[in-house]
Amino acid sequence: EIERIYGHFPRLAERRKQDGVTLSGGEQQMLAIARALSRDVKLLLLDEPYEGLAPVIVEEIENILKEIKELGITTIIVEQNVVAALKLADKAVILDTGLVAFTGTAQDVLDSEELRQEYLMI
Known about the structure:
Strand content: 15-25%
CATH superfamily of the largest domain: P-loop containing nucleotide triphosphate hydrolases
Structural class: alpha+beta
CATH topology of the largest domain: Rossmann fold
Number of strands: 4
Number of domains: 2
CATH class of the largest domain: Alpha Beta
Mean pLDDT: 90
Helix content: 40-55%
Shape: elongated
Radius of gyration: 16 Å
Number of helices: 7
């Protein structure tokens, strides 16, 4: 089981003897995801998985999340880095002051200039 997890997170394998609190922010995020995946999960909920991470680490986390998607694990991502989240998503929900303003595909959001400007500022 642990080797399967290390297969997804080789950086954690390199640091297996290190205390979690001494890991970088990106490594701690990887550790949190790895801990969730060590169970037989059907759903993974991530709140701001890219917050405060360097772009190179965001890319690593994106690759890991793509692998998780390929495994068929449903993932819900709450993320302000909209472009990164939409690259991974099949579906998108846009909230505006706590109310659902849009539900559709991620591609619908990327294709709609109106949605991007009104809600996402991209």
